[in-house]
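Re: folding output
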Amino acid sequence: MSFPSPPCTRSRPAPPNRTSRPALPDSTSLPELPFRASFPPPPFNTLPPLLPTSVFLAPLPVRS
């Protein structure tokens, strides 16, 4: 009886992480939220590669 109790508590925190991942494909604007909540540093490295045209092209015309 004491065994089932620990798994329950560990399984609760696990679902939230798994649910945030599938939400990415479901919503395109929500991916940024889960990523930032999991780890703020990665977003910067993953954002540039994903939107290099909007990030690089935007600053270029404005500066020139």
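--- second protein (sequence, then structure) ---
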Amino acid sequence: MYTIDDIDYIRSKLKNNGYKLTRQRFQIINVINKNKKHMSIDEIYSKVKRKNIGLSTVYRNVIILEKVGILKCINISNSNYYEIECTGEHKVHVHAQCTECNKLIDIDESKLFKNWEIIMGKMEQNYNITVDSISMVVSSVCNKCSDSSDTWQDQIINK
């Protein structure tokens, strides 16, 4: 799960911004980390309410955790999802979203894209900007939906 270094990093990130690692903040981080998926506020709340944490507490703390760089918000189809963004090491973050079921999949950009720094450099040069990060959502169809779509098409063709 977490190492001592991870907890220390989270604590210092909060402390440097004037906050403490409270029981509620730790539970929110823990739930997102354990689920290993992007979670909406309602999904986070459904997991932490058993620990006597209210919905407004979840909202307040998610905003704080995002502000200090521990959580990252991804807006997909006008819905916000949160994931752990603790280390801040990645300047590029890529997701694939299934257009059929809305499943959100993390893409390991390090294996796919070797030239991100060149792309960011060209963007900075051509548009006179400083690129802090790139966040991309690729529209796609997941294997599960693709398989069910093939079955549906086969049924029509074979009638």
